[in-house]
Amino acid sequence: MKLPSLSYDLLKAIGVPLFKLYFRLESINAKNIPAKGGVIIVANHSSFIDALFIAATVPRKIGFMMLQSFYKKPVLNWFCRDITCIPVPDNESGHQALRRAIEYLKEGNTLSIFPEGGRSDDGKLKEAKTGTAFIALKTGIPVIPAGIIGNFKAYSKHHLVPRPYKITVRYGKPMVFEKKNKITRNELNSTTQLIMEKIKGLM
């Protein structure tokens, strides 16, 4: 599976300084992200460019799960085609995407997921989908919760252009769930709730 390359390197070399200048971007406790092995990074999602805020503050190369509709956006289309993005169908079953995500993580990579499955309309957490919990329970791979602060004010779906609000990405401690071969609906729901509570506490 393709690893991040040109776009990612450009983001780190050019985008990070620009983000720090325009958004006064800072990260807190990125040291909580393990240096090796598969890692799932989960965060709230209120902005068109949340993936860029995550990529700019994670000290490892990272892939993303992203709705297929985002590939229609010129900037993200370019970004996704040059790095590892796992497309998730907007209105269909995402079983294939889940399998690809599990494979990618088992290869020792870092994967960012927005559990809400889409941007918030008001900056508050939406009800999350259970895909992240399924991946975490199926693999036993650590989950790092993150709260992106200021993203809704900076560039929500209601804004035509980004505004220079301060962005802070706060990373929590790893959450490790017992690996399971068979997963019940209750386990999916309770794990999803735990993950979202951690994200909310970091916002």
From TrEMBL:
<dbReference type="GO" id="GO:0003841">
    <property type="term" value="F:1-acylglycerol-3-phosphate O-acyltransferase activity"/>
</dbReference>
<keyword id="KW-0808">Transferase</keyword>
<dbReference type="GO" id="GO:0006654">
    <property type="term" value="P:phosphatidic acid biosynthetic process"/>
</dbReference>
<dbReference type="Pfam" id="PF01553">
    <property type="entry name" value="Acyltransferase"/>
</dbReference>
<dbReference type="InterPro" id="IPR002123">
    <property type="entry name" value="Plipid/glycerol_acylTrfase"/>
</dbReference>
<feature type="domain" description="Phospholipid/glycerol acyltransferase">
    <location>
        <begin position="39"/>
        <end position="151"/>
    </location>
</feature>
<keyword id="KW-0012">Acyltransferase</keyword>
<dbReference type="GO" id="GO:0005886">
    <property type="term" value="C:plasma membrane"/>
</dbReference>
<protein>
    <recommendedName>
        <fullName>Phospholipid/glycerol acyltransferase domain-containing protein</fullName>
    </recommendedName>
</protein>
